[in-house]
Predict the 3D structure of the following.
Amino acid sequence: MTDVAGSPLDTGTESPERTPLARRAILPHLAAGNIGSRLFVLDEIDSTNSFLQRLPEGEATEGTVAVAEYQTAGRGRHGRVWVAPPRANLLFSVLLGRPGQPLGLVTLAGAVSVVEALRERGIDVGLKWPNDVVSKGRKLAGVLCETRSDSQSGSKLILGIGVNVNLRAADRPEDLRTTATSTMELVGSAFDRNELLGEILNRLQIHWDSLRMGELQPLIATARGKCETLGRRVRVKVGESIVAGLASDLDGSGRLILRMDNGEQRILEIGEITYLSSVG
Ligand code: BTN
């Protein structure tokens, strides 16, 4: 386990926006549960998802969390890269078992947990189906769910979450200056990343426990209430095809119900959304 105090990333400044991540600062914020029961705090890694992919099977216990100050090969959905400067954001992954529920629900649980933790802190964010956390049309966080298979214990999930926290617009690549945002930009001050991580993990624990027990409705109901995609006309890229219509609801598995212009309904498990209208 690597803690970051005195790490090569330590610039020696005491600025609150660069307070390091540390086990001793995260653990007091964690409620009871298995998520975070093993916690790796890393200076630098290729990707926290890859770190959990590589853990030997005997160490790959459910609830293991890896959080990093910096990723050299962070990845997003659709083969994109996920870039963040050191010590600004939250970049973490959680190893989970198979819930016996659609994977989309686990992704949704990750995004909803971030939304809840930020709203609790007075930040007005919403869910852009299926996995983005947004504010005023700008992306603040994203979720990438991958699988891992083990010969003895079967397959598992790796839920990777990136949240823009103490990130200034000037620190972002040019192409992300107007399409992304961060908690610092939204509230004008730095956030304690250790505390925020603890809160997101606690929320995730609640949703994960419900999913494991087959209780899907609390998560779906919360997601519906926070999903800013619903009620809008949208264009959705699904693989190579594009469909358009009204995003009318989420079904009982967290899939998007799209009412198309010809009156037909499509149920989408995954897709990349572009908004064609503001709330309808
Ligand atoms: C997306 O919106 O495209 C998903 C982004 C997920 C990024 C996180 S950062 C921590 C974890 N490690 C990765 O390499 N990716 C995820």
User: Anything to note?
Assistant: Residues 47-49, 71, 74-77, 80, 82, 91-93, 131-132, 142-144, 160-162 surround biotin (CB under 6 Å). The chain has a mean pLDDT of 90. Residues 193-212 form the longest helix (20 residues).
